[in-house]
Design a protein that fits this description.
alpha/beta, about 40% helix, single chain, 3-stranded antiparallel sheet, binds zinc ion, 3 domains, binds 3-methyl-2-oxobutanoic acid
Length: about 500
């Protein structure tokens, strides 16, 4: 058996099914390109039949992303499969991923079909997909709660029909490491043609066991692991791929397995996804949380100073965590700025570099010392601002304990300057009302989160907003950074508004 584990990332499909997450095509392409740089083998770009928007996004990923297989999800129906193929057919390496549930619970209550019917549908679906490509993955949804003999019968039949990867999802996050290990072991024993397919696992985190279950399955012989970056996904989410990758790498002495990933890209990928999905990573999250490599206790700090490995099992540099030492200030020139970005892994085009350097210089007027985290925040903001209908020109705020908060906001709309004033319950409410007057879009503020990028009174404030479009309920996420939190708030709102404008 090969010692290579393939990584299947479903951040853009299962991850996007997280409540309140809505990625547009440009954002999906941006994430997919970064996932390819990370070394993910298979990218599940979406579920094309579900909406024209999802179809377009999957098609854009298929056209633009190189170096990884691009998969599209399809129920075991010919129409779904035709649509999935239409969306991915231009990919370098397209894969059709078709699924149907195999557990009695799903058969009875969801599908209203018997076991024989489901078996026939699964086989027909795989054969139909085979008219388009050899790269076919079949998922037996709710496999971990399915009757073992029946599951094995379905797997054998779909492999005979042409499936090259068979996925055994723990759809509801119910299994445990021992049980899942046994399940994979039994499948290998009982499915006679299993050597003609790769066994894949797909775990949800309802009991907090998704990563442990995935690793248990891998030790039993599974060779593809599905998951998402930051563990986002339906309900409690999917197996966090960064944890799977680092567990396999850090405990190679146990697993003796390799992946194709460039682990130094993990942190950057995580930040990008957290930013674009509006789902922040908790501070104590393994591998990529803010505290994952922070040592607070005196005893630990003392140990670290003597020898890093006393309290660190992984070197933060290995996952691309930026050093938090202070690097640049107002005397730093363009060259030093560029060099530091290259060290952090950012290769910007000339015009992007010029814009980012302009932002950096602006920032040095307000903040004495600029850390790696600040630089990343600036670069991420520049990367986000691709298509801009609305540009913030200025903000005037009048606020205090004894005055009605009032904001005047100046915005350029496609080259034309305009301004509006509004009063509100607070200065941010006033700013948002003034922006709404200008754009005339009916948006509801669903969520507002503010974080300091680094410590200190002059820290950059990073605001994330979620706006809901009243007409269709769609969610748009925006982010803005500034040392002035009111400006960051306005930028975040305008960033989300620009996404509404693009999607209309
Ligand atoms: O959780 C699940 O079963 C899925 C399948 C569609 C693979 O997401
Ligand atoms: Zn899933």
């Amino acid at each position: 058996m090969s010692n290579q584990v393939y990584l299947f990332d479903t951040t853009l499909r299962d991850g996007e099914q997280s409540p309140g997450v809505n990625l547009n095509a440009a954002e999906k392409v941006q994430i997919a390109k970064q996932l390819a740089i990370l070394g993910i083998d298979v990218l599940e770009a979406g579920f094309p039949i579900t909406s024209p928007g999802d179809f377009a996004a999957v098609q854009a990923v298929a056209r633009e992303v190189k170096g990884a297989t691009v998969a599209a999800l399809a129920r075991a129906s010919f129409k779904d499969i035709d649509t999935a193929w239409e969306a991915i057919k231009e990919a370098e390496q397209p894969r059709i991923h078709t699924f149907i549930a195999t557990s009695d619970i799903h058969l009875k209550y969801k599908l209203n079909k018997d076991r024989r019917q489901v078996l026939e549908i699964a086989v027909a679906a795989v054969k139909h997909a085979g008219k388009y490509t050899n790269d076919i993955e079949f998922s037996a949804e709710d496999a971990s709660r399915s009757d073992l003999a029946y599951l094995c019968q379905v797997l054998e039949a779909v492999i005979t029909a042409g499936a090259k990867v068979v996925n055994i999802p723990d759809t509801v996050g119910y299994t445990t490491p021992e049980e899942y290990h046994n399940l994979v072991t039994e499948i290998i024993k009982r499915v006679p043609n299993i050597d003609q397919a790769i066994i894949s696992v797909h775990c949800h985190d309802d009991l907090g066991l998704a990563v442990a279950n995935s690793l248990a399955a891998v030790s039993a012989g599974a060779r593809q692991v599905e998951g998402t970056v930051n563990g986002i996904g339906e309900r409690a989410g999917n197996a966090a791929l960064e944890e799977v990758i680092m567990a396999l790498q850090t405990r190679r002495d146990i697993y003796h397995l390799t992946t194709n990933t460039n682990t130094k890209e993990i942190y950057r990928t995580s930040r990008l996804i957290a930013g674009l999905t509006g789902m922040p990573v908790q501070a104590n999250k393994a591998i990529i949380g803010k505290n994952a490599f922070a040592h607070e206790s005196g005893i630990h700090q003392d140990g670290m100073l003597k020898e890093r490995t006393t309290y660190e099992i992984m070197n933060p540099a290995m996952v691309g965590v930026a050093k938090s030492n202070l690097v640049l200030g107002k005397h730093s020139g363009r060259h030093a700025f560029k060099e530091r970005l290259i060290e952090l892994g950012y290769q910007l085009a000339e015009d992007e570099l010029n814009k980012a350097f302009g932002r950096f210089k602006e920032l040095t007027g307000k903040k004495k010392e600029i850390s790696d985290y600040d630089l990343e925040a600036i670069v991420a903001e520049e990367a986000r601002e691709t298509t801009k209908k609305y540009n913030l020109d200025y903000l005037h705020i009048s606020s205090g304990t004894t005055v009605v908060p009032t904001a005047t906001v100046g915005i350029t709309i496609e080259g034309e300057k305009t301004a509006m004033a509004a009063c509100g319950d607070g200065p941010i409410d006033a700013i948002y009302k003034a922006i709404d007057k200008i754009t005339n879009l009916h948006l509801v503020l669903e969520e507002y989160v503010i974080n300091a990028v680094t410590g200190g009174k002059d820290a950059l404030g990073e605001v994330t907003v979620k706006l809901r479009q009243a007409a269709n309920g769609k969610i748009y996420i925006g982010r803005g950074v500034s040392t002035d939190i009111l400006e960051a708030s306005a930028k975040a709102y305008i960033n989300a508004t620009n996404k509404v404008a693009v999607s209309d």
